[in-house]
């Protein structure tokens, strides 16, 4: 399939999933409700649309695009279809920052304290990653350093949960780590969007280099690719694109793994051509998964977005691992 046709098809799918997210749910809203909401209407359907459905749907679009785009770039950079945004420890580091903010009670200082702490921790995690890997690190070294960084962040998160002063604090931390868009607001959307877009902007600089890198590091160098610069762009862009999403939605896994792998055959296995389709596909997956959590959840029995993506992604991951030896990657 031609890349342009694929992107147009995915864009149409994204519009359809966005419409489903806006109009379907316990309260069935209409296109008129959307118009009233945008016009500043104060009736109940307009308020539901403006204050609940719109920010939630748009935040899902932003978070999904960041996860999908970062996953595509990481798989191209590491030349490994099993790579995803968690491989360099960004998600775990951002989660640690948010958990620390909740543990020490500083979230009461303002609505943006928690996402700010998550983004700051993601930045510190990336700094630690680059320090551990060294200035001339190979892709393998980056993976090992990312595993170490993620393990440290995960261990510290577990320690804070272990030391939680009461069951309610522990429950708050646990629920946040499950990942959800249910408390999405315009404030969180305004906070996350520029961070994620900045990360995606950096990742959009990599298609030519990723295509060259698919031939091997030596071939990429001979084609004029600066691997050190590429490494910094990939790590920095992933930190922003993923960290900004984790900061407002919690830990949502497997999107960056599943989406690029499903779309790769449709772009001729070209890493550079996979980035934009993966952004669109990631946004579609998050929109549909979040809609499913709203439709399935019952009173007192919420289904969290991160739980659903894990239920989808974990079996897919096992199938992918099992199928790798018998197929070309």
Automatic annotation (TrEMBL):
The keyword Transport applies. Keywords: Cell membrane, Membrane, Transmembrane, Transmembrane helix, Transport. One of its GO terms (molecular function) is transmembrane transporter activity. It is found in: Cell membrane. GO terms for biological process: siderophore-iron import into cell. The chain crosses the membrane at residues 57-74, 86-106, 112-132, 139-161, 230-259, 271-289, 301-321. It is a multi-pass membrane protein. GO terms for cellular component: plasma membrane. Pfam families: FecCD. Its main location: membrane. Belongs to the binding-protein-dependent transport system permease family. FecCD subfamily. This is Iron complex transport system permease protein.
């Amino acid at each position: 399939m031609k890349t342009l046709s694929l992107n147009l098809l995915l864009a149409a799918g994204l519009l359809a999933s966005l419409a489903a997210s806006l109009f379907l749910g316990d309260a069935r809203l209409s296109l008129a409700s959307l118009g009233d909401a945008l016009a500043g209407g104060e009736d109940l359907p307009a308020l539901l649309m403006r204050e609940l459905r719109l920010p939630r749907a748009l935040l899902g679009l932003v978070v999904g695009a960041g996860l999908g785009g970062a996953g595509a770039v990481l798989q191209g950079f590491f030349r490994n279809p099993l790579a995803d945004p968690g491989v360099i420890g960004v998600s775990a580091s951002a989660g640690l920052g948010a958990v620390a903010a909740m543990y020490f009670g500083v979230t009461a200082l303002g609505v943006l304290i928690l996402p700010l702490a998550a983004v700051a921790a993601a930045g510190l995690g990336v700094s630690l990653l680059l320090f551990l890997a060294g200035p001339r690190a190979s892709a393998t070294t980056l993976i090992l350093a990312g595993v170490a960084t993620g393990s440290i962040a995960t261990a510290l998160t577990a320690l804070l949960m272990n030391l939680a002063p009461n069951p309610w604090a522990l429950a708050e931390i646990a629920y946040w780590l499950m990942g959800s868009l249910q408390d999405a607001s315009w404030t969180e959307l305004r906070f996350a969007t520029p961070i994620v877009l900045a990360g995606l902007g950096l990742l959009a600089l990599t298609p030519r280099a990723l295509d060259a890198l698919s031939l091997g590091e030596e071939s990429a160098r001979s084609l004029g690719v600066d691997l050190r610069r590429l490494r910094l762009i990939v790590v920095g862009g992933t930190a922003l694109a993923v960290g900004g999403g984790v900061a407002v939605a919690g830990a949502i896994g497997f999107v960056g793994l599943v989406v690029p792998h499903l779309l790769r055959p449709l772009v001729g296995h070209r890493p550079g051509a996979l980035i934009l389709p993966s952004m669109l596909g990631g946004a579609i997956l998050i929109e549909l998964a979040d809609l499913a959590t709203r439709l399935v959840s019952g009173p007192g029995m919420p289904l969290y977005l991160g739980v659903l993506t894990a239920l989808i992604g974990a079996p897919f991951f096992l199938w992918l691992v099992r199928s790798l030896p018998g197929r070309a990657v």
